[in-house]
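Example 3.
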Amino acid sequence: MLLLERVTVVYPNGLKANDEVTVEIRGGEILALLGENGAGKTTLAKVAAGLLRPTAGSIFLDGEEVRFESYLQALRRGIYYVSQEPQLIEGLTVLEDVGLTLELGGRGRSRGELRRELARLSAKVGLRLEPEALCEDLSAGERQRVEALKPFLLGSRIVIFDEPTTHMSPLEARALGEIMREMRREGKGIVFITHKMKEVLELADRVVVMRRGRVVGELERSRIDEARLLEMMFGEVGRAAKSKGMREPGEVLLELRDVSAAKLRRVSLRVSRGEVVGVAGVAGNGQRELFEVIAGLRRAEKGKVLLGGSDVTSKGPGERARLGLSLVPEDRLGWALVPGLDVATNVYFALNHKRFFLDWREVRRAAESALSLVPIVGSPSSRVESLSGGNMQRLVLARELFREPKVLVAMNPTAGLDHATTVTVREMIVKYSERGGVLLISEDLDELAEMADRIYVMSRGSIVGEHAKPFDLEKIAEQMVS
Amino acid sequence: MEQRLGGVLAGGALGFALAVTIASLATGRPLEIVENLIWVYTSPAPLVNTVLLSVPIAMAAIGLSLSYRARFITIGAEGQIVLGSVAALWATAYSGLEGSAALALALLLPALSGALYALIPFLLRAYAGASEVLTSLMLNLVAVYVTNYLIATYLREGAFVMTRIVPPELRAEWYLGLVMIVAAALSAHLLLTRTRWGLAIEVYGRAPKAAETYGYSARQVMLLVSLLSGGLAGLGGAVAMLSFQHSLTPMSFPPGYGYAGALVAWLSSNNPLAALFASLFFSSLMVFGRSLQAVGVPLSYALAAQALIVLFTLIAVARERQWQ
Amino acid sequence: MAVELLLGALVSAVPIMLAAYGEMVLERAGRVNLGVDGMMALGASVAVIVASLTSPSLGLAAGALAGALISLLYAVPVVYFRADQVVAGLALAFLSWGLADLVATLSVPLSAPIPQGSALHLSLLLLALLLPLVLWAFLYFTWAGVELRAIGYDEKAARNRGARVERTRTLSALFGGLMAGLAGAYMSLVLYQGKYFAGITSGWGWLAVGSVILGYWHPLGVALSTYAIGLVLSLRPYLEALGLGPLSVSAPYLVVILALALSSLLTRRLRLRPPTT
């Protein structure tokens, strides 16, 4: 149905995200596009969906060469792309959101008609849907499913799902799988982008594996096997699985006692010297609020926060930093780092010295010593936004470890990073935990299983479970959606 | 940065040319307009006036450039300047003090009243979350009305609605204002580049969340820039009173120094040193505009010309950004 | 007296209402134009000239058109060049004030204003009362309205989906200019009996911008908030009688500032997310 031929995409920063990629999408088939983060899967999908124009290469739709100038053009030609972050428009109702997509896609209809069709469709795919609900009140999984309904109404022939299960519970992921099978029954061509092996084995009719912008292999259903795929994804080396040895934890460094604030309900947890403590949960279940309460950005309405034994419940972020708290926030640019300032200043400001006059030689020295902790491409005087995402995160970690904190609190520290940086970041955190305590809030259960000594499970703002090694991942996943 | 300068110059030239064209068309006397233009930039009297009028503009712009760097978008300098000149008038003509005591009060009191008035939008923003853009704008009008009220009541002198006059011995020489704005610009520059406060302003303005997370308080930064910009604007109003206004009459709208200051701050990318030059340019436009009153051009023409220059600069700078 | 006060409030509220409706639509599309007060002044000035040359109704139309035209100086930099909307809006206000005064120097004072209570005046009152219903229907019950709101809620997502961001915002800005111009024309032709003078808007444009927030960006809410401001405006004679003199002029501004603070506080307390970026 759709053929992408020798597609090459070079980003303005010189990164070759796709290098002569050729992929064919066939009707009535689920094609899995497998590869680790940064392999170029999303780039390819965006080319197919008209969101990105390729530097070179051609696209053929039913044998005819096409050139999509916009997402809308691709959509009108029957290609629907569901991006990783659910793209519903917060503020609109579900009905309005779906209706707007149809309207702009040239398949507009009246509200009444749409309401009837939605009811019929959601019954068919086994999905309860309140058309007058506000999109912002929907969970990530629900949003993905609303998105998944749109291609049916648009009459799309090709549907591309970009890592749809990232923010989904296992149950929701299964429901989405059903929707994909229904699409296959209708003869649609489905592209399913993922880096999760299990999903591929469950759903795919065919697998295309990408690595570093190239297609490195293609397997039909009958020949799909896990070991082969892994080797293709990561090359000969394979995933360097490193598990750390057990240690006796030392004194308690960070403790939350019955903390309630916004979404958080009576959260208690403790982190001791020498351990990595994980907090698992589906996105949006209070992890951000937890991070903010620990950072001192959000006041605990009830309960206590203790840092190294002293009560810091009413203390601000500055005070907490002086007591040995280091933070690696979720967003790098804008939260961990300040755009528009150079690398050295970005190190210095977070150290928050009280001296009134700045000595720029000292600022540079501080930056250089922090940078010596980790290899970073980029000098202290380069602008921080010119760094790659991986280098930004290395910089943040270097800075936070340079402070020699007692506790390091990190939230999704490897999200969106390439494999090499992910490994470096995880190694740095685990190595640091020999000296202090680490609280790792992550949506990536595999990451937690690899690094943590203990895992708390969070759901709807409460801690619903605590697990010690060896972890029962099934049980944890179950609690995540309780 | 050079790119931006190019955009400013191109946009500025275009806006300027258009403003002159508009005045020529509206009056139908292009020759006199051009004559006036040449006169403004060549004769000593208008040049001195340019320096005099540049003081309130520059003081406002310097303070606002600090404020805008912290993303605190107050437009309140206009009202703070008005209150500053009222305070200076009171200190010199009504307080009963004389000599250096009166002069000291005539600088201290305006700075204080400007800073205090700037506290209102700060408090509304920091404690209620109200947008400082709107509250500060409306407070400008309130300041004008309060001043009119004072002129009509407590400060009224004689049969007409007007005030006493600043005694000649307390008036400032024209170059004193120049010294003051250069000193203010240098201090602001040093504050931004060499001190912890400046770092806090830069960090908070570019990434408020990062600033808070790493121990810089949002309220403290906003309070700091509010007090500084308010105080500077108040001082600007004081120097305006002491050096060229000398008395007050009721206003139907604000005089425009603070608005010009806001435009200057944007034009100079919130750089206090660059703001000095832009202020002189903008005050020359004011002098030019006033010189055209004789041929029927209204007072608000100068502010319109300044705005036109800023609008064209916005487009020129944005175009360059797009080409990069 | 009560009826008189209520009706008088409407008569003075009309310009703020009209201007606020226009600004509200633009803000729902995700942009703020601070130039409202200037566009009003220009509308007031142009309306007087054109009315003196032709007829009052053409004067109204010309004022509205002038507002729409000048709003392009805001729309082009902001929508197409992504310039700072605060700077562009204020610059537009300052420019329009000057242009309005400049245009007025060309004119002769008008002898044929729109009499209060005339059919033309009543139709303007009706417009101010009915427009919010029309806008409500448009924003909430047509797909074009949904598109406009979507752009205001989340520009990026809406654009990805094919929403015409630039077109919608430019049209909204033009509508905002049109309404502000009409509001200004009403001020000079109705409220000031065909006269224009520098500072004629006395900052009512800022009140209009504030009332959009107070009405929580909803057509009916804005109708209410602007009418409330009209009430405060028509209380002025009573305040003046209390001996406050010129100070009473500042009453509406103080009330709006206070109301803005309270509504922001309320929005924060209730954890509401305003329907615009």
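Residues 36 and 195 of chain A are 5 Å apart (CA to CA). Chain A has two domains: 2-234, 252-480.
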